[in-house]
Write a structure and sequence with these properties.
The protein has nine helices and twelve strands. Helix content is 35%, strand content 24%. Bound molecules: adenosine-5'-diphosphate and magnesium ion.
Length: 321
């Protein structure tokens, strides 16, 4: 199968590649054309997943397709954007119909859940890697950036933390667990759900936001730096799932919640007066700390004792000491 036939069969013909709102021209020309309503801005983000780095070489292609798009789309949710479309740059070592079919259906399923249209891409030969660029829209001036947190704001997260970190040893085959424990953790790892509804509800309310991809402490550090404030996290308020606690115990679950990556849950700062309105609208979130006038991220135990760890999260190119 040649490059063009492959593109046509697996991607241009996929359900997620059909024309739709906001997509004036999709796959097939030199560029796609996206339409923005007057007064809207475009949000753009790219993520690359490399075999052996971000997922195991033999990963199930359907799960991989789902996860690759979810990971990319989560950045749109974190800005408060509404989904528009995405492109896929796919590098494959060889053409396997079975692999491509699985991958395309995983991609399709997540595209459906996120309301994202596949509008273009590139297909090349080489070591397996996936680059997805996502496009979204939002009213001018309402994007949720990292830089607006103010002392006195609440620090909140949009879901339970650490599940994906708990799943990793199961994914890598280093550990086994009973189905009722493994199931929810693996589901979170392979199919994180970008928090679009929450992100859009936070427009004009949250003072700063991001999605947690490298661990809570590391990512909160980005808000602290960009906003020039300090963040205080209370360990006992960290929301962790029963499955994660069964696997790792409470201390282990806290550690996964604080430093584990791949959660793709939103973290945001909220002026306290916004909390009740947001909850009344049905938003589900957990308050885990506060913003203060200091700097950096501090972790405290239930006595208010500083227990900030030194290792914070994953970096591809670690800083030299
Ligand atoms: P060009 O050479 O002009 O860059 P290509 O031959 O690479 O175009 O691709 C032809 C069309 O197919 C383009 O519209 C491109 O966006 C789309 N395309 C290529 N690869 C993919 C892919 N993996 N998924 C979706 N669309 C793709
Ligand atoms: Mg090309």
């Amino acid at each position: 199968m040649g490059e063009f036939e492959l593109i046509r069969h697996y991607f241009a013909a996929a359900a997620c590649a059909r024309a739709g709102e906001g997509v004036a021209l999709g796959i097939g020309d030199d560029c796609a054309l996206l339409a923005l309503a007057p007064g809207e801005q475009m949000a753009v983000s790219t993520d690359t997943l490399v075999a052996g780095v971000h997922f195991p070489e033999g990963a199930d292609p359907l799960l991989l397709g789902q996860r690759a798009l979810a990971v990319a789309a989560s950045d749109l949710a974190a800005m408060g954007a509404s989904p528009l479309g995405f492109t896929l740059a796919l590098t494959l070592p060889s053409v396997s119909a079975q692999w491509l079919e699985g991958f395309a259906s995983g991609l399709d399923a997540m595209a459906e859940r996120c309301a994202l249209r596949l509008v273009g891409g590139d297909t090349t030969r080489g070591p397996l890697s996936l680059t997805l660029t996502v496009f979204g829209s939002l009213p001018q001036g309402l994007a949720l950036t990292r830089s607006g947190a103010r002392p006195g704001d609440l620090l909140c997260v949009g879901g339970r933390l650490g599940n994906a970190a708990g799943a990793l040893p199961l994914v890598l085959g280093q550990r086994r667990a009973a189905p009722d424990v493994a199931g929810p953790l693996l589901a979170h790892y392979w199919s994180p759900l970008p928090q679009f509804v929450l992100g859009q509800a936070l427009r004009g309310r949250a003072s700063a936001a991001l999605d947690i991809s490298d661990g809570l402490l590391a990512d909160c550090g980005h808000i602290a730096t960009a906003s020039k404030v300090g963040l205080r996290v209370e360990r006992e308020r960290l929301p962790v799932s029963n499955a994660l606690q069964s696997l790792l115990g409470l201390e282990g679950a806290w550690a996964a919640a604080l430093s584990g990556g791949d959660d793709y849950v939103l973290a945001f700062t909220l002026p306290p007066e916004e909390e009740a309105t947001l909850r009344a609208e049905g938003a589900v979130f957990f308050v885990i700390g506060q913003v203060n006038a200091g700097e950096g991220v501090t972790l405290v135990d239930r006595h208010g004792q500083d227990i900030t760890p030194t290792i914070r999260g994953y970096q591809h190119f670690a800083e030299t000491p």
